[in-house]
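User: Let's play a game. I give you a shape written as C-alpha cells, and you guess the letters that built it. Ready? Here's round one.
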C-alpha cells in the first residue's frame, strides 16, 4: 500500500445510557452513531459499537493472518479464509503485527472490508427488543433487500453483533462456491482479485508474515 496507517484507539468506550430510554430508542441511537462514525471515517470510534464476541473473533485472527500456513487455512470456512487472505493481500504486516482485535477491526473498516452497507441496510423498519437482545429489520435502498441486525446488551450498552451477519454471509459464499465449478482455493482467489482488482501473490497461502 502507498501509505502507512496509524490508528489511535480511545481508552474509554462510548456510553449510550439506557436508563430513561426505551430499548428501541437506545438501539436506534447505537446504529445511527455507528453509521455516522463510519461515514466520518472515525474508525477508532466505530469499533466501540462492536460486541465483545466480535472483538474476540478479530483478536483470534491476528496470529492466523501473520503465521498460519496453507494446511491451517484449509481447515477453515471459505469466508474465514477469504477474510484472512484479504488482510494478507493488503501486504501491511508491519501494522497488523502490533494490532489487537479492535485495531484489526478498525483496519478492516479503513480498507472497506467492513462498512455499514455490508452489515445493515439504510432504513430501519422495525426494532424488536428484550432486556438483552434486539433484532433490527432494515432495508437496503439500492437493492431493496431486507437485512436483519442483532444487537446485544453488554454492561448496559447496546453493541452490534457482527458475527451474526458473518454467519449469513457464510451461507451466501458457500452457495456461490457450489455454483462456481471451481476448487475452493481458485474460488477464493477469484473473489479476492475481484474485490481488490489486483493479482494475488501465490505465496499468500504459505508465507508467514
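Assistant: Ready! My guess for every position:
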Amino acid at each position: 500500500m502507498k501509505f502507512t496507517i496509524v490508528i489511535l484507539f480511545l481508552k474509554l468506550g462510548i456510553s449510550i445510557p439506557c436508563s430513561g430510554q426505551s430499548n428501541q430508542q437506545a438501539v436506534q441511537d447505537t446504529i445511527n452513531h455507528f453509521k455516522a462514525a463510519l461515514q466520518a471515517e472515525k474508525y477508532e470510534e466505530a469499533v466501540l459499537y462492536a460486541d465483545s464476541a466480535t472483538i474476540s473473533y478479530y483478536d483470534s485472527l491476528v496470529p492466523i493472518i501473520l503465521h498460519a500456513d496453507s494446511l491451517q487455512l484449509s481447515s477453515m470456512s471459505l469466508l474465514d479464509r477469504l477474510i484472512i487472505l484479504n488482510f494478507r493481500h493488503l501486504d501491511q504486516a508491519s501494522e497488523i503485527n502490533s494490532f489487537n482485535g479492535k485495531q484489526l477491526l478498525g483496519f478492516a473498516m479503513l480498507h472497506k472490508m467492513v462498512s455499514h452497507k455490508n452489515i445493515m441496510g439504510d432504513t430501519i423498519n422495525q426494532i424488536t427488543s428484550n432486556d438483552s437482545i434486539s433484532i433490527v429489520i432494515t432495508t437496503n435502498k439500492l437493492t431493496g433487500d431486507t437485512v436483519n441486525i442483532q444487537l446485544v446488551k453488554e454492561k448496559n450498552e447496546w453493541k452490534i453483533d457482527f458475527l451474526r451477519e458473518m454467519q449469513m454471509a457464510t451461507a451466501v459464499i458457500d452457495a456461490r462456491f457450489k455454483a462456481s465449478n471451481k476448487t475452493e482455493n481458485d474460488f477464493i482467489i477469484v473473489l479476492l482479485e475481484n474485490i481488490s482488482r489486483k493479482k494475488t501473490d501465490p505465496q499468500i497461502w504459505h508465507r508467514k508474515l
